[in-house]
TrEMBL record:
The lineage of its organism: Eukaryota, Viridiplantae, Streptophyta, Embryophyta, Tracheophyta. The keyword Heme does not apply. Transmembrane segments: none annotated. It is a multi-pass membrane protein. This is Cellulose synthase-like protein E6. PANTHER family: X-BOX TRANSCRIPTION FACTOR-RELATED (PTHR13301). Mn(2+) binds at residues 306, 330. One of its GO terms (biological process) is cell wall organization. One of its GO terms (molecular function) is cellulose synthase (UDP-forming) activity. InterPro entries: Cellulose_synth (IPR005150), Nucleotide-diphossugar_trans (IPR029044).
Amino acid sequence: MNPNYVGDGEHNNEQMQSQKRQRTVGLTIRRRWIAPDPTMRVIHVLRRQPPCRHRVGKIDGDRGATQRRETKRMQHKGFYSMFKGSISIICLDFETPLNAQPINQGVYGSTALKHVLPALSINTVTMSLGEDPHSEPPSLVISTVLSLMAYNYPAEKISVYLSDDGGSILTFYALWEASLFAKHWIPFCKRYNIEPRSPAAYFSESDGHQDLCSPEEWSLIREMYEAMTERIDTAVLSGKISEEVKANDKGFHEWDQENTSKNHQATVQILIEGKDKNANDDEGNVLPTLVYMAREKRPQHHHNFKAGAMNALIRVSSVISNSPIIMNVDCDMYSNNCDTIRDALCFFLDEEMGHKIGFVQFPQNYNNLTKNNIYGNSHQVTNQLLNLKVLMGGMDSVGGPMYVGTGCFHRREILCGRRFTEDYKEDWDGGIKDKTQENIDEIEEKAKSLAASTYEHDTQWGDEIGIKYGYPAEDIITGLEIHCRGWKSVHSNPPRPAFLGVAPTTLAQTLLQHKRWSEGSFSIFLSKYCPFMFGHGKIKLRHQMGYSIYGLWAPNSIPTLYYVIIPSLALLKGISLFPEITSPWITPFIYVLCVKNMYSLYEALSCGDTLKGWWNEQRMWMVRRITSYLYGLTDTVRKLLGLSKMTFAVTSKVSEQNESKRYEQEIMEFGSSAPEYVIIATVALLNLICLVGGLSQILTGGRNILLNVFSPQLILCGMLVITNIPFYEAMFVRKDKGRIPFSVTLASIGFGMLALLVPIV
């Protein structure tokens, strides 16, 4: 690994001939780039290379370019009211998608010999265990780690690193327990080829009768796992580790009474050394290397959140394994496919195109979604085309998908700043350092120096090297810069999902997650990393548009608020915003509305979603935009004005028993007086009042004339009321603890009355 390197060289601008290529693993031994000492500091300004331009022929694949219709505002001076109505329709179809050709990336059987398979560093990060053990429970984290250690891949070429940003002794204890259980779990998985290889997921899905193992062996391994998790959970509840346990490993002595989650020394402990002859499983096979890392944190030094932790892992792994491939995954995204590593390497090792691939991105999938996806957390095709399966597949045709922060395989060299050159070759036969002459204690001390809080001072880490700093969505910027340095990426979505995580199970968690995403993306759009400016002349325009879709999430809150409020208020006040129902001018509005929703429904059903699931997604589309995206917009503006600082909010991975039960029954969870709920309740009540008032005017006035004039607004307001039915139930019908509190209902009634007094003309 080279933290100081920016490659030289010019691109070969010859246009490549397009052709279908079978994704098979190459067997050629290639020249290896020798990395300088990773401890070398960068104190000079790295020079920039000219923009990388590389013309690539159109890749063959199924053409699925999605057509979108845009409604142009009425230009005729006599149609002012029609212009106002057109804004609502524009709001409905506000986002301009990537007009690309989705490519179905597939992999075929690997023909690679064992000795040419590259070594791999698997990095996973926890962000809150030191402060709140319940947001990312240690038992969940180690289940993910165990699944990552059990891949169908040579164990001596796998190194798993866990970064504990809270520096908690409870996390270290849980990982120490996992290192002992791995000796039994990994051979059990490989002997019977079980899936998934996360013990928590496996034992929740299997009763042992469908497996090849005997019931006695299945019961034994389950009892061992449950005993381990019970010991871990007991330690978490008590908040301390017994002296008996501490005597079993020298690593426990790294903690003292003065350690806190925000003020602690650097800790690096190699729990399993893959090169150690004694580090074998029950069957005598080599175990993967397992490393615990807690980077140093001091109150006087900014730690740069998740990006800082990932960069520390890049440096620490360079002195322990220095694998040419780095895979990173969130601590709650366990491996669901034991062949994922080989699938990813099929792209990297392709003899014709592999040298152009900088990273391979797998989609995010979840294992706890309800049948009808109550909170719209599925990443299947949705009505906005902002999911991984379509958008990412479409981006493959213009340079590749963006990096989404988890489930991704990177070349180590591109994370160290290397630019793409046509003559770039990689020798995959290597990467694991030979430490037979180096003491483990010496390696750990050297690694600790790389995880020091002052190490990055006066260096290019977080700027030219590693994961980028300064923005909540550091992953998007990192991927964008990799693409701008000339590298391509690939989106791989195998039939069996590569990773499965935990989706938010309450409305509050869902809104918090989308607030963080929208805020981070919008702050990038307003920065020097705006895809249209930073990517100009480096990546294609359609690629820039694909990146910009996410950056426009937050500002979309404004037209959406107009869409759900103004037409309904105009109906109540007797103001027509749309052409009459008998007018030919109404045709574009009806056409856009019908075609968009029919196509969205077709996409959802074709991807296995249900009709009710699609309807829930429409509801969440509205809710996220008037709450999460609105807060993301305002918080970004406040940061630009210097009124607030960047924070990193962690979505909780657990919920209470009653909350889980309501989630399984697909009952929306409120239960608190959050400001977001006031907005939701106010909009719902406002639409109900306007619908009742509008119908009253129509029934008491000239029925035929008013219906002809106000039918479009009446239909729109009526659909919004139907969409908001779960909110009315939560305010006036439900009696459980997950209902909307009375204080929120009272506040929303007050704000609704005030909104009725606002003039709209």
